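From: lab user (bench 3)
To: helpdesk
Subject: output format question, protein + zinc ion

Hello, I'm new to running complex predictions and I'm not sure whether the block I got back is the full result or only part of it. Here's what I submitted:
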Amino acid sequence: MENLTAQGNDEHLSQLRTHQPNVGWIEVIAGSMFSGKSEELIRRLRRAKIARQRVQVFKPHIDVRYSVDHIVSHSEMRHESKSIETAADILAAVAPETEVVGIDEGQFFDADLVRVANVLARRGVRVIIAGLDQDYTGTPFEPMPQLLAIAEYITKTHAICVRCGQPANYSQRIVERAERVAVGAADMYEARCRRCFVPHADTPTSHITEADD
Ligand SMILES: [Zn+2]
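Helpdesk reply: Thanks, we reran it on our side. This is the complete output you should expect:
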């Protein structure tokens, strides 16, 4: 169902693109971990390439979990990308003929990503940004809230709660790490719904389970 909705959006966008080639816009794909954000980003980028549009993809240098030069979804879909340090570096790296810019893991970029996205969109570029909208405590993860506010189109992706099977909107950290940014996957996080999410997740899951039972 979510896929159909996203596809519907996409068709609409490519129609716009055909009719108004010099008009840019911002799309944000936001959700918890394991919600298919990167997969949806890669799907849109592939479709743009099928439409023979010039595509460039960026990811923050911090995220080298699976690959240095590709964005990779949890389902192993991948797309070539350039690792970059700051949002401003994206502006410098975008070629004049580029029509679509994909950015993965938007939450790991600095606040300047908001300005950069606006500059590119005003220049006529379709900017697609995927990112975590909340950190492991359930706090909005900047600059994603600001990007959601300036985006023309928003897709919220949901994972499946590992506890109860409901749509999951939260990333539960299941290991003890104090820092906000701890890059990891299934070994460090799991998807949880609002009911099953434990906000202050510095305690490992086993402890939480014991306390709850
Ligand atoms: Zn649940």
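A quick orientation on your result: The first strand starts at residue 25 and ends at 31. Let us know if anything else is unclear.
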